[in-house]
Write a structure and sequence with these properties.
It is a single chain. 30% of the residues lie in helices and 30% in strands. The chain is elongated. It has two domains: 49 residues, no CATH class; 116 residues, Translation initiation factor 3 (IF-3), C-terminal domain (Translation Initiation Factor IF3, 2-Layer Sandwich). The protein contains four helices and eight strands. By secondary structure, it is α+β, with helices and mostly antiparallel strands. The strands form two sheets. The protein has a five-stranded mixed sheet with strand order 5-6-4-3-7. A three-stranded antiparallel sheet has the order 2-1-8.
């Protein structure tokens, strides 16, 4: 029997040791870590940029793309970029953001309300799971989906639906095998 004396909790007082098969213990720990990574999903934050003087055609095209991203389950950061004297009229940007939120209400909801950040006004839309379940998904036509978003950022999501930024691995002391001499 390949049993080893393994220090399980070095920080405890007194230190805790167990007699076990160390290679089997390490293998099972690897399998548990692998399984937890499998269950985690990643959510991508796409960004769509608008201008206060956007035309109707451009607005409709960009808003359709936002709805498509939300339908795919991505979050979308909608940004209004102001230049020069446009900064004096933030209500124009707010109106555009409200129109976008209204038009994509069937597939998404506002997660972060519009706020001014320097020369930009931003709002974050997230996919609405309940609305997506009600609305049937149309099949993508040939040639659709070839357009790249203006920017993407990957953010892992826990399976429970809450978004968390990945943390640095915590420094846990790995159990150390101690050879027993007789």
């Amino acid at each position: 029997m390949d049993l080893d004396l393994v220090e399980v909790a070095a920080g405890a007082s007194p230190p805790v040791c167990r007699v076990m098969n160390f290679t089997k213990f390490k293998y099972e720990a690897q399998q548990r870590a692998k399984e937890s990574r499998k269950k985690a999903t990643t959510i991508v934050v796409k960004e769509m940029k608008y201008r206060p003087k956007i035309g109707d055609g451009d607005f409709d095209t960009k808003t359709r793309k936002v709805a498509q991203f939300l339908g795919e389950g991505h979050k979308v950061k909608v940004t209004i970029m102001f230049r020069g004297r446009e900064m004096q009229h933030p209500e124009l940007g707010r109106r555009i953001l409200d129109r976008v939120a209204e038009e994509v209400a069937e597939v998404g909801k506002v997660e972060v309300m519009p706020k001014q950040d320097g020369r930009n006004m931003t709002m974050v839309l997230g996919p609405d799971k309940k609305a997506q379940a009600k609305a049937p998904r149309p099949a993508p036509a040939a040639g659709e989906g070839t357009e790249e978003p203006t920017g993407t950022t990957e953010v892992p999501e826990e399976p429970t639906g809450t978004t968390e930024v990945p943390e640095e691995p915590t420094e846990q002391q790995e159990p150390v095998a101690v050879e027993a001499t007789e």
